[in-house]
Amino acid sequence: MDKRVGSVADAVAGIGNGARVMIGGFGGAGAPIELIHALIDKRPRDLTVINNNAGTGRVGLAAMIDAGMVRKMICSFPRSSDPRAFTEKYLAGEIELELVPQGTLAERIRAGGAGIPAFYTPTAYGTELAEGKPIAEFDGRRYVQERWLKADFALVKAHLGDPQGNLTYNKAARNFSPLMCMAAATTIVQVSRLAAAGDIDPESVVTPGIFVDRVVEVPHPQQEEDLVRAGAACA
Amino acid sequence: MDKRVGSVADAVAGIGNGARVMIGGFGGAGAPIELIHALIDKRPRDLTVINNNAGTGRVGLAAMIDAGMVRKMICSFPRSSDPRAFTEKYLAGEIELELVPQGTLAERIRAGGAGIPAFYTPTAYGTELAEGKPIAEFDGRRYVQERWLKADFALVKAHLGDPQGNLTYNKAARNFSPLMCMAAATTIVQVSRLAAAGDIDPESVVTPGIFVDRVVEVPHPQQEEDLVRAGAACA
Amino acid sequence: MTQNTRPNSRLSNAQIAWRAAQDIADGAYVNLGIGLPEMVASYQPPGREAIFHTENGILNFGEPPAPGEEDWDLINAGKKAVTLKLGAAFFHHADSFAMVRGGHLDVAILGAYQVSQKGDLANWRVGSTGVPAVGGAMDLVHGARQVFVITEHLTKAGEPKLVEACSFPLTGVACVTRVYTSHAVVDIADGRFVLREKLPGQAFAELQAMTGATLHVDGEVADLVAPDI
Amino acid sequence: MTQNTRPNSRLSNAQIAWRAAQDIADGAYVNLGIGLPEMVASYQPPGREAIFHTENGILNFGEPPAPGEEDWDLINAGKKAVTLKLGAAFFHHADSFAMVRGGHLDVAILGAYQVSQKGDLANWRVGSTGVPAVGGAMDLVHGARQVFVITEHLTKAGEPKLVEACSFPLTGVACVTRVYTSHAVVDIADGRFVLREKLPGQAFAELQAMTGATLHVDGEVADLVAPDI
């Protein structure tokens, strides 16, 4: 079994109109810029995208939104240093927003990956973000029932990846990516370096290969912050 | 801040009658034998113990049970190569058993650590282990509601530990321990080697120090399998 | 592969394990229950390599070590010493059961006391006496894409293990997808037993008489043959 | 510690942050919200070292790097570059919020639009227009053992921020434990504001007039003083 694919274009094959796509990264840390732009080249439409944010500048996720590919964003914080792509579409009523508290977003994704259809959290109890959700009391405190989140595809960026899909990440670029790998039917990973089988210490594997379907090497990945600073229109 | 303590006796200080104690390990892998025997020396009674198993031979958890310290076991598999300590007490009606499927046990402990008071799982639906528990349907499938598990203390064995309590484990000795560290009010760890602050790669930390309260070095820990094979009555 | 051409009167345990192993694809993620299911690992067809998961936190473990080489921190769910293959990973129990419950395993293989035609499984206790112990069985029967049971066709007392409804306490409801027995390969489909393979030397009526519920035929019934092992 | 002996007419933002920092114990695990709360890290008393958590997956991060030394994979929740201290750890978002929701943080410090006497907090949006964004605030207000708010006592328009009931959308219900303002330190206890410190130069009646709900006195009211910083 070898999960390596030869190009980012091959890596994103099969993502069609209406797909539900999780994209790793917290701001630019862990954003799989090259996979996103390979997807933009294919222009699927009506996507539901799950990410903590909603893009910045004109690159990466923001470029997907600019290209009119995203019907709905599920995120916690659709603001950034330059949020105009999302903001314009949102204020024009051209993109739907499901706003989810950050920890609830993470836990819903983990639940999707772990086969937990619903759980209770104190987060958002009594706020407008809990409206319409079931409430239950445990040990005298009230909690909101939240549902799992799953996706058809996850696009994530990792540091090392071996042929079986075992992954490590770089620093805080880890963020949502290990959870998204669990929660997507097909997980697509750009790694900064391919490792040989056995090169990753089994103790240090962060995402075991069982959660990964395709691995493509992008040896010098672009960093969203650099692209935004350079005013890049598109990678 | 320095979480190191000088002896296993100091490490288990404060565990009193009626305490709820999680003990790491899956069989002998990760069993904190030295901490357990330090606790046996103090003889608290009426403990509720949470472990995957219920001890083997006459050492470790089995010795605690033999000593009459355990009022209730919460576990998935109270059988072993030599289960007589638990079996005798159980058949005599002297120890209570809450039997929990292994994955549900792990998830309940994680939920306790993560502030999730309840969750739904397909596991045990339609079986006697789900009797009396709320059932709910999501997307056409039925699930059992399970509650979090927390403890007053966790006793675990790790490989490296630094003064801040960051931990790594050895191979499959990891098992329930990272979860138990999260779910106990006071987490007590025997490490095979103390590391200096900064000696553990931040990428490879399995249990971040925030989940750990006391760390004691036991450089040559005993292994349950060896003790049982040697017929040890008590470590 | 050498196959026996002489019809068996029944498959041995090793042959049942061999037969189940033929249905595991290269690269499949597989959890083998303690006991008879563990034998499946020995019979992977040449050129195929499954990745074995053990619920105590290892992916891609291998053969037992040589005697005296055991590392008791490197064990499987049956608490037997194992070794690692290249590309192995360790993880904690919550992640391990996320793999199970979250539908990431391709195949889980378990033993059985009884399997019902609805796919209900009873494999954890036979009554209400003694010390009950469940381990990971109730988790494993949910989540894996295919849940295989490998078992004798009859109990030692000669009772059918494939039944209309289980009389023993259930491990899971409507969870088994396929059953490999000493006498047949049977799918669970729409709440019915569908016979896929039977021993070439045994008449359908005889097999049906050994089975506690109707065996449906839906398409070809192939010969169940296994090599002498 | 040098302290100003001249009574302040109000505390500056830095002084509010300084005052909150005095209540953080050595070794405490602390999450500082984006903006004003981040300043608290600069004013830890000598000999005390808190361990800072950022919800995007770092424990024990330190100061910003020198300009030009930024690593954009090493950022905090405000997406500013940080450095690591010895004994740092990385983890994913679910583990990070397990720390938050699971009650493992000693202190979370947030800003506020409004705080009610019941401890309700409104700090994420002021109305129903524009693009809403919540981030981790709704998680942080639950779970931390102490939830501190640091804020001006009045809005720029001169309205009280400490109120009987919040009129802005809530971030959390009954979650704030203590409020540090430009004019006072106030605990939330049993659904009431309890005044703990006030500016020595300000009369109680004047402070009460600036406050949208009754300020209760329960024991000593100390002088709120901060060094010139």
From TrEMBL, chains A, B:
Pfam families to which the protein is assigned, alphabetical: CoA_trans (PF01144)
PROSITE patterns reported in the protein's UniProt record: COA_TRANSF_1
The entry's keywords: Transferase
Stored SUPFAM superfamilies: NagB/RpiA/CoA transferase-like (SSF100950)
Top-rank taxon: Bacteria
InterPro entries to which the protein is assigned, alphabetical: 3-oxoacid_CoA-transf_A (IPR012792), CoA_trans_fam_I (IPR004165), CoA_transf_BS (IPR004163), NagB/RpiA_transferase-like (IPR037171)
PANTHER family, per database record: ACETATE COA-TRANSFERASE SUBUNIT ALPHA (PTHR13707:SF60), KETOACID-COENZYME A TRANSFERASE (PTHR13707)
Annotated family: Belongs to the 3-oxoacid CoA-transferase subunit A family.
Protein name stated in the entry: 3-oxoadipate CoA-transferase subunit A
UniProtKB/TrEMBL annotation, chains C, D:
GO MF terms held by the record: CoA-transferase activity
SMART domains per UniProt: CoA_trans
Keywords: Transferase
A Pfam family the protein falls into: CoA_trans
InterPro entries: 3-oxoacid_CoA-transf_B (IPR012791), CoA_trans_fam_I (IPR004165), NagB/RpiA_transferase-like (IPR037171)
NCBIfam families in UniProt: pcaJ_scoB_fam (TIGR02428)
Record-linked PANTHER family: KETOACID-COENZYME A TRANSFERASE (PTHR13707), SUCCINYL-COA:3-KETOACID COENZYME A TRANSFERASE SUBUNIT B-RELATED (PTHR13707:SF57)
Similarity comment text for this entry: Belongs to the 3-oxoacid CoA-transferase subunit B family.
The name this protein goes by in its record: 3-oxoadipate CoA-transferase subunit B
UniProt organism field: Ancylobacter defluvii
